[in-house]
Design a protein that fits this description.
Length: 462
Amino acid sequence: MMLLELHIWGPAFSLPSIDPHCLAAVIYLRQVIPRDRWVLVASCNDTLSPTKALPALRDGSTWVGGFRNIVDYLNRVSDGQWDLDVVNFNSRDRADITAFSSFVEANGQSILDLHLFVSSENYISVTRPALSRLLQWPDQWFISPQRRSAAKARTDHLGLSSLDLDTANETQNIQRSTQSGSDILPQSLRLSRQTVTSLVKQPQHAAQFRLKALADAFFGPLQQLLGKKHYMLSEDQLSSLDCVALAYLALAYTPQMPHAWVAEAMSARYPELCQYVDRLLQECFSGPVDLSHALLGSANDQGKTIINPHAEDGKTLPWRRPDQKGLTAAGTTFLSGTVNVLPLAGHFQKRKLMLRNGVTEGRSPSAANSALVQTSNITPPLLALGSAIAAMGAYLLYSGFLSERASPKSTLSNMGEAGAMLDMAAFGGYSNSPVEELQRHQRSGRVPVGLEVDVEVDQPKV
């Protein structure tokens, strides 16, 4: 029987994945599928997924993209045996699971975007290096900036751009330029700037209030739902809601960040959620997960990658080493990343990342498979357009060269006295010989400036 392959973004922050959707899928498969029936591949290649977003599950020739699509597919191929919610919960509980899972994904995504990507301190010192360690060349040049741009676009409506130091500095410079006119006012007429209202309205303080409100809106309902139970909806049965909630909470609480506002909020006001994260991570993975765990697979004599030989513990994930990119794949990635930097292509790339939780992940497995063929790719049209422009430019240049060769030689000296002077200054003399220049200008009735001419003057007779 063929093994199922789960392709994800790789480990970071002592967790199996840096992405919440991938982490939720890992937790789910770890609970429902026997360990010898699936392998985990940190491919970090979202082009494998029919939705162009990881996680992606491969079952033979079938690919399924997105966490919810994977759950539906496993339910279908196993007649419900590999479905946590169908086996352990009734229809009313399943409705609650769907509702709270949507709540976690909608609110938790903004928290993680701000925490991991928008905050310049966190992104530069922690998130970007963690992503770079996962990626092969030349993905390190493109993936991290793309994901950060998409995160900033998704959270732009929250008014927390001050977390991004570059944007904050630009805003402060604009404010200084608009306030420079106030310097001409006498000191007695200037308003005091150090008031409670002015301090609260400063970007850094306003951001703290908004971040606190976001954290309370996300963590509060989850802690109320959890209460004193072991899991979100049950004392002894884990659901898909626990997989989703644990993924988002773990990525918010576990990373050691310079600006650790999420972890501080959880520790100070939501201790039950902190205990919930620590407890379930220990149950699911029995300890921290390192990047080396995903790369311990080795190649056998037939050149096929095998499962991590050190994964003997039942709670150790069945990692398999990802395939290395060839020269062709690396070149394609480099070309695609370069094209996406262009304004038009970058717009579509940003929109794809922004909508990764949108309509595409709500497709059925069959529709998701067909999406691999139907997904639009603007790279070939752009390449064709660029080739056409290059061909047209080459034709125009060639035509202009021929016409230039057919026309008489054009020099600065042909452009009047000023042109002749410039021609002398630039080239140290005329392009033609002095005699030729004199003859040419005599025919035109002019004497060129700067040309020495012998003039004989007849002496007057006495």
